[in-house]
Amino acid sequence: MENFFNIKLYLPEITIFLGSLLCIVIGAFSNKRKYNKVYIFSLVTLLISSCFILFSDVSLKESSNIFANTSFTNAVKLFVIGISIAILYVSHGYIKNNKLNLFEYPILLLFAVLGMLLMVSANDLLLLYVSIELQSLSLYVLVALNRDSLKSSEAALKYFILGSIASAIILYGISMTYSITGSTNYNVISNFIFNQNNFLLSSFGLILILSGLAFKLSAAPFHMWTPDVYEGAPSSVTTILITLPKIVVLVALIKLLNKPFFFFESLWQQIIITITILSIAIGSIAALRQENIKRLFAYGTIANIGYVLIGVISNSEQGLSSAILYLVIYTLASLGIFSFIMMLRRENTQILNLNALAGFSQSNSLAAVCMIVLLLSMAGIPPFAGFFAKFYIFVSAVESGFLFLAIIGVIFSVVSAFYYLKIIKIMYMDNQDESSSFELDNRMFLFLIIVSIGMLIFIFFANDFTNFINDLNIIDK
């Protein structure tokens, strides 16, 4: 048992946990500038944790096998921490302008990130469940951050109730799996399923766990909460919801399907094919009639998750790498777009109606150009980064024998292009109704420019980036 708890394995997570506790103490006992102090210390905590990940030894193992670090999980953790730092940096102005600068905001984000890091390395169903709950509970409170907003409170309550049901479904699936296999460890479950003859009972646990994770991913038909919660939450929190949970839940899903439930491939492929088609169709069609910017991108998220799942269904090295690449590009583009959304202010009021963007290019030409790049990338139009992401996804589907999924994806990519082009049309072709221009925040504007440049120059590094992801050995079976 000497290696049961190898502290070196857990240093990044321990750092964030201790940093969160110190932030609570700082926030509770500071008389002035509580938010600024906690904000700075949160950034320092995330940076220290990332250093531990960079210099960690992936050869270290744990005798209990509930926690597994690989070069892939470390890369995902670094990406999650990097996005978290970017969100804290970009949303700083938004939080202050909307008087949401409560010291609990960075602390809750730290606890959510802690759950995410644990989820990425989880090699046991119980650890997976605990990490999902740690992430979810933090996000429920973050959605309700604006206590003076009825919409925010309503969104948080809806998210909490439906999220709790999804968590209960996952837990029930885990308990069924344990009752049949006698273990919650991925390796033990995989060996048990391989050696037994009757797959029927074991498959019920998989179906329930998949349903719960589909909710966390905002995949149809478990997507009902997404538009209302994204609209009601503060935009800084919506930025968190639209990026971080999607990354870690997808990684957890890939590990589940390729380790404990690897021998159920034909079953889970059929389930995910249904989820994929519904997500792409519902997300693309519903987004067409949205007038609220956040609701539009909520439905866009549902569709994009469908595209990501095509790579998961392929279950080949190229398919999984394409899914990860797509999610990385989608995350960065979403972060850039929500930096833009957080900037949309007139007379200290955030503007979220699409028609309010009429003539935006006349007063903010550079920001409008950046948005064109990000929107065209999300639509999958060449030569932007989003095109390569979709192209690799469709190629992997065809090579794995899922030509019909590639065809469906191409058709609905054309449909989704309409609502992205609609935003561009409003910004450039409609007449400006308001005499005043938007109050642009320098931090958000800078980040918007950086992400836009990244989407533009990706074409020169596409092969290098895909080779890097392939070299990470996503599944270490």
Can you walk me through this structure?
- By secondary structure, this protein is mostly helical.
- Helices cover 74% and strands 1% of the residues.
- It is built from 20 helices and two strands.
- A hairpin with a 2-residue loop joins strand 1 and strand 2.
- The model has no long low-confidence stretch (mean pLDDT 90).
Topology:
Blueprint: H1 11-29, H2 34-54, H3 71-90, H4 92-97, H5 104-121, H6 125-143, H7 150-181, H8 186-195, H9 200-217, H10 225-232, H11 235-258, H12 265-287, H13 293-314, H14 317-343, E1 345-346, E2 349-350, H15 360-363, H16 365-379, H17 385-399, H18 403-429, H19 442-457, H20 462-471
Antiparallel strand pairs: 1-2
Class from helix and strand fractions: mainly alpha
User: What is Rg?
Assistant: 22 Å
Q: In whole angstroms, how far apart are the ends?
A: 24 Å
pLDDT < 50 runs, ≥5 residues: none
Give the helices and strands as they follow along the chain: HHHHHHHHHHHHHHEEHHHHHH
How many domains? The number is 2
Count the beta strands: 2
Instruction: Enumerate the strands of the largest sheet in spatial order, edge to edge or round the barrel.
Output: 1-2
- So what's the overall shape? globular
Helix proportion range: over 70%
For this entry, give a set of tags:
477 residues; mainly alpha; 2 domains; 2 strands; 74% helix
Summary of the model, kept short:
The protein has 477 residues and is an all-alpha fold. Helices cover 74% and strands 1% of the residues. Strands 1-2 form a two-stranded antiparallel sheet.
